[in-house]
Design brief:
It is a single chain. The protein has 134 residues and is mainly alpha-helical. It contains 7 helices and 2 strands, in the order ααααααββα. Strands 1-2 form a two-stranded antiparallel ribbon. A hairpin with a 2-residue loop joins strand 1 and strand 2. It is extended. The relative contact order is 0.10.
Amino acid sequence: MDEFHRRITQEVASKKARLTPREIRLLRTYLGFSGVEFAAVLDVTPETVSRWETGKKHMSSVAERALRLMIFVRDPIAEYPLQRLAEVAQGEAVPLRMRLRESRAQWKAEVAQAEPAAIAAEEAASRNGQDGGR
């Protein structure tokens, strides 16, 4: 039955026309979000989600694309850590530095720890064509 639901939601998410209010609700509930949780994920109010799902307001194209993308890149969830979501996107924007290493015919990703000042200096050097000998 899970495969059946997945195929239905992927077909709905793949259609070219805008999503209907019932389709928005179908995709949201398939992903396991309550209206409040979905609003937090998309950084809108719960009232906005309700308006989308009742047809009182059209979903923005950015929000609609994000919803469609979630259908293809994530499995349905039973519980979403809203506390974690409340902690992200705070303060200054800092790029995430990753280090990729090959290990036994597969890749491993590691987060490279760097101070914001070091990151800023590295970015300034690369803009000036000085990549530090790399």
